[in-house]
Amino acid sequence: MKNHNPPTPSPPAAARVVSGMRPTGALHLGHFHGVLGSWLQLQPTHDCLFFVADWHAMTGAGARVPREEAVYEMVLDWLAAGIDPARATLFIQSRMPEHAELFTLLALHTPLAWLQRVPGFREKQASHPSYGLLGYPLLQAADILAYRGEWVPVGQDQSAHLELAREVARRMNLAVGSALFPEPQALLSASPRLPGLDGHKMSKSRGNTIAMREAPERTRDKLAQMPTDPQRVRRHDPGEPARCPVWALHEVSTPPDQREALAAGCRSARIGCLDCKGQLADALLPQQARWRERAAAYQEQPKQVHWMVEMGTERARSLARRTLKDLRQGLGLHA
Ligand code: SF4
Q1: pLDDT tens readout for residues 32-44
Q2: In the prediction, which pLDDT does 6 show?
Q3: Domain count, the chain
């Protein structure tokens, strides 16, 4: 399996990292090679807080309260991937009323225009005109600032939200007259956006995913359906891996020396697409087997998983309470 490139820039060791994921149930390869890849790199050397963003999952047209099974299926995939609750703090956002209190205090100091100018707000507002939508980036700021988070792994599309969190941190520091909040920095993910079965970005909403714990025969079937280089119409037409969505999966799954041989075979039409996909399955299936194996061990002890989240939630709560206490004091509110 390809090593993930380190997110850039590299934060100093032991810096605090805060990151959340919306609970959508079992995760897919796009999640693994995106967010989870960054988390796995950071957890050995940083103070990581990873949370289930279930309030965020309730923002948007038609959004519902996430099912508990969806929450724990996702946590199970975190653990299957190698997220270690002994090293990282795992918790659930909605169990932390401190986020809501901080959100309120931040809201009192945040100009409306700052929220209205966040990219995407105006378009989404048309279909879902709610205060929750307007306040969504501010709740994200509260998620980070509650722990005085210093680094936040983000995709390019989230960098405007993080910029807002930085502005809000500066504003609050002025309000309390001290550097209570660090300005959180972006760790831009260097991981590629994985294409799904239809060649578009892998996502549940498109129904084009391969699950981390997909059964082997389903993975092989799904790979067989994937489109390839559109210019390779017949078996003897030479292809170009750069034009082929299957290649993006090879890049994160197949060892480099094998990839070189495959690329040469594609360009010279020495190999067919079925052979190429077969070799991809050979690289991918052992990874998925490892994830299924780890998940199965946790599935036998569901209480243990709940306990891990419980312990994480307790630690997160004590950190957030300390922040809120300092903030109340700084603002002159009664303790
Ligand atoms: S041989 Fe592989 S890389 Fe080349 S077009 Fe076929 S599937 Fe894609």
Answers
A1: 998 899 999 999 9
A2: 42
A3: 2
Q: Is residue 56 part of a domain?
A: yes
Give the rounded percent of residues in the chain with a pLDDT score beyond 70.
93
- Collapsing DSSP to helix, strand or coil, 238 comes out as coil
pTM of the model: 0.90
Mean pLDDT of 36-65: 89
Residues 120 and 166 in one domain: yes
**Same structural domain for residues 47 and 81?**
yes
User: Do 77 and 55 belong to one domain?
Assistant: yes
Residue from 232, 249, 250 whose mutation best tests the ligand 1 pocket (most atoms within 8 A of CB): 232
CB 39 within 8 A of CB 7: no
- Look up the domain containing 239 and give its range: 213-297
Measure 241 CA to ligand 1 centroid, in angstroms: 6
90: its two tokens = 């795992």
Report residue 234 as tokens.
């017949």
* Domain shared by 313 and 171, yes or no: yes
Q: Are residues 187 and 246 in the same domain?
A: no
Mean pLDDT of the chain: 91
Q: In what order do the strands lie in the sheet with 47-52?
A: 88-92, 47-52, 16-21, 151-154, 185-188
Ligand 1-lining residues (CB < 6 angstroms): 228-229, 232, 239, 241, 244, 246-247, 266, 271, 273, 276-277
